[in-house]
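Might you be able to consider the sequence and fold that I enclose below?
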Amino acid sequence: MEELNQGEIKKTDSRNNFLPLSILIAAVLISGSIVYMVHSGKTAGNIQVNPKEQTAAVNPSTNPAVLPVISDRDVILGDQKAPVSIIEYSDYQCPFCSRLFEQIEPSLREEYIKTGKAKMVFRNFVFLGPESFAAAQAAECAKDQNKFWAYHDVLFNAEIKDGKENNGNLEQGLFLKLAKDLQLDVNSFTACLDGNKYMEKVRSETTEAQKAGINSTPTVFINGEMIRGVQPYAQFKAAIDSFLVAK
């Protein structure tokens, strides 16, 4: 069975493949889980996706050694002492990541992050091409001026407005415009971009995500509980509330 790749189903002239593909589409629609699957061999910023790793799903409850935890290098949105941690792995070009940002995150921020019940971090899992890699580095450069989350938001909004992948919009001109709009020191920001200051960080986050069994975007961990795709807000709420009740 063919795998969903970049939100599209590969076209084929063979009638023999029509039924399996129809079943796959139905399964995705019924489950309500909308994700981008990593396609083996896809590269982004010299990151090579290992086909063996992409199929090795991890059960968080039985593999605690690979569970993501918040570290000093993460930029936390919300109260650092909040009892619930939300860790999102995402690609700025992924349309379903944009949907999570647009449809789910506002409620999470309002109900849980602003109230001190949860904190959130964003991690890069780039696999949709060089533009994803460049966008990830730009957001990391904004972090140097304490504007990571503000830049993260305007970057997603710009990509949502564009609505296309790998069409050349995520480039230095846009990155500099967003930096100016947020009143960043553009000279320092440009030096960070040109110097590839965060190239290795973006690469390592993607590699670490693969080791944790992540093979699609968006993938969210709530206190270690994995939620894949754009699930209904109620599912995220139930997961968070279960940890608040147990506290």
